[in-house]
Write a structure and sequence with these properties.
By secondary structure, this protein is mainly beta. It contains 1 helix and 11 strands, in the order H-E-E-E-E-E-E-E-E-E-E-E. InterPro entries: PhoPQ-act_pathogen-rel_PqaA.
């Protein structure tokens, strides 16, 4: 089980209720011996776009309430960075805004049966910088709770703004 929280900084300020409700749904399901949802995915990319294909199997677990895609674009080609705050270059212990926001986007339903839904999200490479995207699926939980699960994040293009480093050449700094 995996969950990414869009538009959250490291302390998840503003998202704590959502996190607690997801944890509640998970623990109540385990406590009540209810089957948990099944969400699997594959990620791939080529020279022009990236792709995530999510398979939701509800043959044993709950049927999803909804599924949505999220996407965000970095501010430039110098930072492959999707955080809301970064370290201030003049004072690394001080946070500085990095306004990279996640927006919802539509999914494509590739297949659907009585027990399975397969949906996907395809994102073209941006002209500059990077684009990240993932799929979120919401499931009903015990006592009216909702369990929110996500795929991993796919980032395109799969490149970095710096060269590879090895051993002593990998001196890092806070960013």
């Amino acid at each position: 089980m995996f969950r990414r929280i869009p538009n959250a900084e490291h302390q998840c300020i503003g998202h704590l209720i959502s996190i607690v409700l997801t944890i509640q749904s998970f623990y109540l399901s385990v406590y009540d011996n209810k089957p948990l949802p099944s969400l699997t995915w594959i990620k791939s990319s080529n020279n022009t776009h990236g792709y995530i294909r999510a398979t939701i199997d509800f043959s044993v677990g709950p049927k999803p309430i909804s599924a949505i895609g999220y996407r965000a674009r970095t501010l430039n080609e110098k930072r492959r960075d999707f955080r809301l705050f970064i370290a201030d270059p003049s004072n690394p212990v001080k946070p500085m805004p990095n306004p990279v926001f996640w927006f919802t986007t539509s999914l494509v339903t590739e297949a659907q049966t009585n027990t399975t839904i397969v949906c996907s999200l395809t994102i073209e490479y941006p002209q500059e910088g990077w684009e990240g995207f993932f799929i979120q699926v919401n499931f009903p939980g015990p006592n009216g709770s909702v369990l929110e699960l996500t795929t991993e994040t796919q980032i395109v293009p799969d490149t970095y703004p710096t060269d590879d480093c090895h051993n002593e050449s990998c001196a890092g700094t806070l960013v």
